[in-house]
């Protein structure tokens, strides 16, 4: 089986940009050329590799070839950067797709990405809940992830980063209105909560610790890591917040509804098992940032 580099590069562009036309614009060729390359690649592999919808998505067979294509592209950039060390020409940028949960991106990951950028690394960040991020690794969409999964995905290695500690917070006025006698089970069953999205179960984890009853308090969904704490400050409900977000607000503007309560979320870095200098630089930068920001 002879897989051509340009065909693999084309496949990555089709998946990343969502259509043959967008891939053609990215690679500065015609859509017809993209179609011909994809047909040739699928003919070589003997499988359909991409679902031709909008957006285009890799098939199960395509996910396997997509992982290979990304690995080849990264190793090629590794080599070109090494060859360019003695050249007057600037080294190429590498592009590494990663998955990061919203809270980590909002609080501690960005400094790590800035360190990696000094090595001419561009990142394509997919925001996904830490409990579901490994699925993008399995698909070949991402090469690395900040995740709560300690068990490595097939073909990946894992390293612990630390723990994010969340506390149930609310505005003082919300506390007086909804929890005047403290976080009793009866009061919590009526008090509104703020939830990031429908995959966010941090509030539910706290409630389940208080009682095994069926919880169904009023909910507001605020799917933005920047707006989520602001919604809590404004009194839409109570919600779980890490200290890095709490500390951004003036003292007293947010108060814990249950001072002793903490929900810990262990985080891990998973990445493809690939001997790439650039992927190693990114992993080390993330580990250093995590050591400074997370509980170890």
TrEMBL record:
The HTH lysR-type domain, residue ranges: 1-59
PROSITE patterns given in the database record: HTH_LYSR
The UniProt record lists the keyword Transcription: yes
Keyword terms: Activator, DNA-binding, Transcription, Transcription regulation
Lineage: superkingdom: Bacteria
Matching Pfam families: HTH_1, LysR_substrate
Record family assignment: Belongs to the LysR transcriptional regulatory family.
Protein name: Transcriptional regulator ArgP
Lineage of the species this protein comes from: Bacteria, Bacillati, Actinomycetota, Actinomycetes, Micromonosporales
């Amino acid at each position: 089986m002879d897989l051509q580099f340009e065909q693999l590069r084309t496949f990555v562009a089709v998946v990343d940009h969502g259509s043959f036309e967008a891939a053609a614009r990215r690679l500065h060729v015609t859509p017809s050329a993209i179609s011909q390359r994809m047909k040739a690649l699928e003919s070589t592999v003997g499988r359909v590799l991409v679902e031709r919808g909008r957006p285009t998505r890799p098939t199960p067979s395509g996910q396997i070839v997509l992982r290979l294509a990304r690995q080849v592209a990264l190793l090629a950039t590794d080599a070109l950067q090494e060859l360019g060390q003695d050249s007057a020409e600037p080294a190429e940028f590498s592009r590494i797709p990663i998955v990061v949960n919203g809270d980590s991106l909002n609080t501690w990951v960005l400094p790590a990405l800035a360190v990696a950028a000094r090595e001419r690394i561009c990142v394509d960040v997919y925001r996904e809940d830490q409990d579901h991020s490994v699925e993008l690794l399995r698909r070949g969409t991402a090469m690395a992830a900040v995740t709560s999964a300690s068990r490595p995905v097939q073909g990946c290695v894992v390293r612990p980063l630390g723990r994010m500690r969340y506390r149930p917070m609310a505005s003082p006025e919300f506390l007086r209105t909804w929890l005047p006698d403290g976080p009793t089970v009866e009061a919590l069953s009526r008090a509104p909560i703020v939830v990031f999205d429908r995959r966010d179960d941090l509030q539910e984890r706290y409630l389940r610790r208080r009682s095994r009853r069926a919880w169904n308090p009023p909910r507001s969904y605020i799917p933005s890591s920047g707006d989520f704490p602001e919604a809590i400050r404004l009194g839409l409900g109570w919600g779980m917040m890490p200290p890095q977000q709490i500390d951004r607000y003036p003292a007293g503007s947010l108060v814990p509804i249950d001072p002793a309560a903490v929900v810990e979320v262990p985080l891990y870095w998973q990445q493809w098992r690939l001997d790439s200098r650039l992927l190693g630089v990114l992993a080390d930068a993330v580990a250093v940032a995590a050591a400074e920001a997370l509980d170890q």
